[in-house]
Amino acid sequence: MISWRKHYKRGLIAIGLLLSTSASIYAQGDAKNGEKLFKANCTACHALDKQLVGPALGGIVDKVKSEQNLDTDWLHKWIKDNKALRASGDKYANEIFEKFNKTEMTAFPNLTDQEIDDILEYTTNPPAPEPAADAAANGADTNSITSIEAQKRESMNSKIILISLMSIGGLLLWLLFKLRQLVKLQQTDELVGLNATRATSFGDIYNKYQNVGKGILVLLGIFAAYGLWNSLMWIGVYKGYKPEQPIYFSHKIHAGENKIDCQLCHSSAKYGKVSEIPSMNVCMNCHRNIAEYNGKYMEPGKDKAFYDGEIQKIYAATGWDPASQQYTGKTQPVEWTRIHNMPDFVYFNHAQHVVAGETAIINSYNKKNPDAKIDVVCKACHGQVDTMNVVQMANDFTMGWCIECHRTTEVDMNNGYNKEYFKNLHEKLKKQYGSGAKITVDAIGGLECGKCHY
């Protein structure tokens, strides 16, 4: 009896030790700190609930333990230097490398053991969302409902006001009709005779004041001709034009919030005549690893689900399967609507402005617009693109607009391109305008017809 109790007691102790050892796998890290470290180091390639470049990491500790009988020490080695672990001949490490298209995971030798434990704890027991976030969401819903109710009340008030105005208008017309009847009843014979001599038609008025009428007709003809001429002059001017695109692309998020350089996407603007529309492969350079929107900025009326849906359109266009992390070969053309399009008879070279004229254009623009200075030459023509959710044509792009720029933009004589290309011209300009004179673009041929027209 004593022996049975002794073995029973030992069994309970062993089970307790086993459970405590198992539990320690999940309780040795700080999940909140692990969440910060995970977002800073891992989210480019991993998510908890789905495969990206690498596998889903939710419950990875338990998975490695149950499927491969490996503990957290193996995970520490893999995270710190997976290449060395594969080189040592580790079977599971090499299996993972082969499975994910031999994509080598970034090594993190700088992470301490405790920090790795924090990350693993986060993958096992991710902390619940902060109540404040839920409260904010509920507040947003409440605000949305309140806004809808306010709109309904405003609509009802507008209808009441409209009906009231129509009623008042009807009453005034009725009163006018009654007053007219009273006036007719009280007219004397003298008034009747006087009315007979008055003009009662447009023809009578014209015959009486025909000289004035002819003058008015001439003025109307002049105004009509001016209006026609003015409308013809604005054909092809589309300032403010901002068409809806097949895939929603916010320049405010990309160029504004994330500070992406314009020329990263529009690479030919610097060395080419045309700044082309980037191919979808350029989008995939980033969005191969960014499958959902987690930014703080939200355009009014749009939410995370909207942005995530637009990213899925990129995947559909390029034939990218985020689950397998491979291209399917089934692509769909994207019919972008072009916004800036110079006429065929106009020659415009982006490289000439972006390279040779960059400093001169930026300095000239900032002098003329001290309250809206620019830091990128692109903004001088295309406006503050980094603040636009939907890109629009920011300027007129007329011939007069270009000429005005050439007349007021001072040439950067210290520019290496100008110094070499206009080497002999510089001496001539110094003699013509004086050594200290400001030389603008028109002085170096900026107003010659052949510069811009074939």
Automatic annotation (TrEMBL):
SUPFAM superfamilies on file: Cytochrome c, Multiheme cytochromes
Transmembrane residue ranges: 160-177, 216-237
Pfam families for the chain: Cytochrom_C
Top-level taxonomy: Bacteria, Pseudomonadati, Bacteroidota, Flavobacteriia, Flavobacteriales
Chain intervals for the UniProt region annotation (Disordered): 121-140
Ranges of residues in domain Cytochrome c: 29-127
Protein's name in the database: Quinol:cytochrome C oxidoreductase
Keywords of this entry: Heme, Iron, Membrane, Metal-binding, Signal, Transmembrane, Transmembrane helix
GO terms of molecular function: electron transfer activity; heme binding; metal ion binding
InterPro entries (UniProt xref): Cyt_c-like_dom, Cyt_c-like_dom_sf, Multihaem_cyt_sf
Bias kind Low complexity: ranges: 131-140
Origin superkingdom: Bacteria
Family matches, as PROSITE patterns: CYTC (PS51007)
Signal peptide span: 1-27
